Amino acid sequence: MRRSSRWYVKPGHEADTGTTDAADVHPDCVLRLGLDVEAHGQMFTPRPIGFVDSPYKDTAEIPKGLGAKHEAEGVLRILPEFELGLTDIEGFSHLMVIWAFDRSHGFDLLGMPPSDNRPHGVFATRSPRRPNPIGLTVVELLRRENGLLHVRGVDMLEGTPILDIKPYLSSVPPETLRRGWLAEAENRAVSSHREAAGVTA
């Protein structure tokens, strides 16, 4: 297996640089996006199909922790060469957006999420510090304007590269879903709140 870095010129910077070759431009004008992966004689190179217009400019602004609600509205700005792929997407109420943590560096296999004070494995959390910096968010589709998808529920930063979009479909009955350590953390938080209320009563 061979792996190497891949770079793309950010939209809007082509005019500043006069090139689409990331090797010829300033680092502020490019984004690092995933890896080239060669295995079994096949090469896979992720590339953005668009970018997110988000109200969040810094990770500190994104709601986190127990009870956090993601109700912010934003726009999925799909590049013109992929707009045809949005045909019939208006019929779906919710979408799964696969995107890249392009501002995250390195990874931790164990970490303390904001929802708990106990460590958990990275694959049991939504931590941005992942071996492959890929995120997934379910959003509500409000409307489409050509290559612009107006959505509610964004939790990405402004300019986040979008890797893929899929309609949200689930045949899993809600009563069979388990929420793992998150449910346990919520129960501990409720118990702690009740104890505190009893002390101050």
Question: Can you walk me through this structure?
Answer:
The chain has 201 residues and is mostly beta strands. 12% of the residues lie in helices and 33% in strands. The protein contains two helices and eleven strands; from the N terminus they run βαββββββββββα. A six-stranded antiparallel beta barrel has the order 4-5-10-9-6-11. Strands 1-2-3 form a three-stranded antiparallel sheet, with no helix packed on it. It is globular, with a radius of gyration of 20 Å. The termini are far apart. Residues 1-9 and 14-32 have low confidence and may be disordered.
Write out the strand line-up for the largest beta sheet, numbering strands in chain order. Answer: 4-5-10-9-6-11
Strand content: 25-35%
Level of helix content?
Answer: 10-25%
- Please provide the count of β strands: 11
* Count of alpha and pi helical runs: 2
Structural class: mainly beta
Q: Which sequence of SSEs, written as H and E, runs from N to C?
A: EHEEEEEEEEEEH
Q: Sketch the major β-sheet.
A: 6 strands, antiparallel, barrel
Q: Give unreliable regions as ranges.
A: 1-9, 14-32
- CATH class of the largest domain equals Mainly Beta
- Second-tier CATH architecture of the largest domain: Beta Barrel
- Which fold name is given in CATH as the topology of the largest domain? Elongation Factor Tu (Ef-tu), domain 3
The tally of structural domains comes to 2
Mean of the pLDDT scores? 81
> Globular, elongated, flat, extended or rod-shaped: what is the shape?
globular
Global Rg: 20 Å
N- to C-terminal distance: 63 Å
Give the name of the CATH superfamily of the largest domain: YaeB-like
